[in-house]
Amino acid sequence: MSDNNKPKPSENKMGTMPVGKLLITMSLPLIISNFVQALYNVVDSIFVSRITTDELIYDEAGELISAGTDAISALGLAFPIQLVIIALAIGTSVGVSSLLSRSLGEKDNETADKAASHGIFLMACSYLVSLSIGLFFAKALIAGQGATGRQLEYGTTYLRIVCCCSIGVYMEIMLERLLQSTGRSNLSMIPQMTGAVINCIMDPILIFGLFGLPKMGVAGAAFATVFGQVVATCIGIYLNVKKNPDIHLTLRHFRPEMRIIKGIYSVGLPAIVMQSIGSVMNFGMNAILLGLNRNAVAVFTVYYKLQSFFFMPIFGLNASLVPIIAYNYGARSKARLKKAFKLSLVMGFFLLFVGFICFELIPGQLLRIFDTGDDSLIVIGVPALRIIGIHYLMAWYCILTGSVFQALGNGIYSLIVSLLRQLLALLPAAYILGRIGGLDLVWWSFPIAEIISLATNLYFYYRINRDVISRI
User: Fold this and answer.
1) At 65, phi and psi to the nearest 5?
2) Rounded CA separation 345/333 (Å)
3) Predicted confidence (pLDDT) per residue in 346-365, tens digit
4) CA 159 to each of CA 61, 268, 301: distance values in angstroms, whole numbers, following the listed order
5) What's the sign of the alpha-carbon dihedral 52, 53, 58, 64?
6) Cβ(5)–Cβ(292) under 8 Å?
């Protein structure tokens, strides 16, 4: 995949453009595209919540459990395993992005090209892991969280499809990161937004069987997702080959080099483990919640869909900050590096403060978007959102300092913080609070874990500023 007619690379804007303008021009397209991605996540669940069936299931109190509630729960039960896929994709992409951006800052274009080609190769290898999960372990992984009956059936169906057809999500994420790493965030938003829009269009068609197609239910939601990812991959290939002159993406005469792979995974492996910790956290929370209330997993899933409106944009800001920090670190420009971080903190605070206000003032209105046909989401969800929303006041700083650690080649700090927050703090707190006060207290585990995360991030940033940034 190469094109000799592409324009020659010039001085990269990450080393010359005013920092404020650079951060805005690189992050704004990602924030917009990630917001569209978040919209797709919510739309996907809105359609799933409206799935109906003739089968009637009642809870212990004799209340009817709608098929829509079980369908949302199924998406939540599949989500921890989807996070493993995303962990492999994002973690490897972070490693490629960091190596590629540093190489460009050091004017080492050969290594930058090799980083890009190795990224494509490593994604193909990662897909084999997902394929194995889908073929052999899907049902056991859903059942292992305590799911039975319709939740188990729906969850297994959804998970098997998204795992076996996951080649699109691997390639889409990598190709977008290659564009971001060279400062072309405006182009990277095109495949992501296109894939999300196609997904939203295909969801009702496949779920409810419109235009003469069969009614597929939860399976339709899964197929709509992977179809959008494959389209986004095709667009990403075109943009990197034709519109990205800073790298020459080719697999012709490709040979894996351990030097490049080690360079990628020195940063990427901690990011993979960090993302996978989120999978373990979700798996554990699902098991804890199912032990307290059958519909609590649906509430937890809806929370994750809603919070993506606020977290996906800040993740876009985070993705643009990594190459800026890495490039200017490679170029030995401390002033530009520190200014980019400070400006990102201001933007990040604003994004998550809006989320905090929404979760505190209008939780009921947010939950009513998901019309499952019963009131369990509202009864359980309103106090849950208000309690969980408190951690938004701290999460923005933790996310953005993590990007600094990764960009400077010290992803182990991010790994420690994530491990501490999600496994050593959140899950034990949720389990203990659930035993003490039931479902009402479980949700306080989120702000408790975030306080611990904030304190640890402050300490690690002090260390990396003293040992690395101040020495540039």
Assistant:
1) -100, 120
2) 19
3) 989 998 999 999 999 999 99
4) 30, 25, 15
5) positive
6) no
Measured between alpha carbons, how far is residue 434 from residues 245, 327, 441 in Å?
A: 55, 46, 6
Look up residue 58 and give its DSSP letter. E
Q: Which residue has the tokens 């479902």?
A: 439
- What integer pLDDT is reported at residue 2 of this predicted model? 46
Cα angle at 167 between 153 and 116, to 5 degrees? 150
Q: What is the pLDDT of residue 14?
A: 67
Task: List pLDDT tens digits, range 455-465.
Answer: 999 999 999 98
Q: Are 30 and 185 in contact (CB under 8 A)?
A: yes
> How far is Cα 153 from Cα 205, in angstroms, rounded to an integer?
21
Tokens for 74, please give them: 């199924």
Closest CA to 439 of 383, 390, 359, 361: 383
Phi, psi at residue 58, to the nearest 5°? -120, 150
For 138-202, the DSSP string reads HHHHHHTTT--HHHHHHHHHHHHHHHHTTHHHHHHHHHHHHHHHTT-HHHHHHHHHHHHHHHHHH
Our CA dihedral for 197, 202, 203, 206, rounded to 10 degrees, sits at -170
Scanning the structure block, which residue is given the tokens 């995303």?
Answer: 86
Is the distance from CB of 280 to CB of 137 less than 8 angstroms?
A: no
Q: How far apart are CA 73 and CA 81, in angstroms?
A: 14
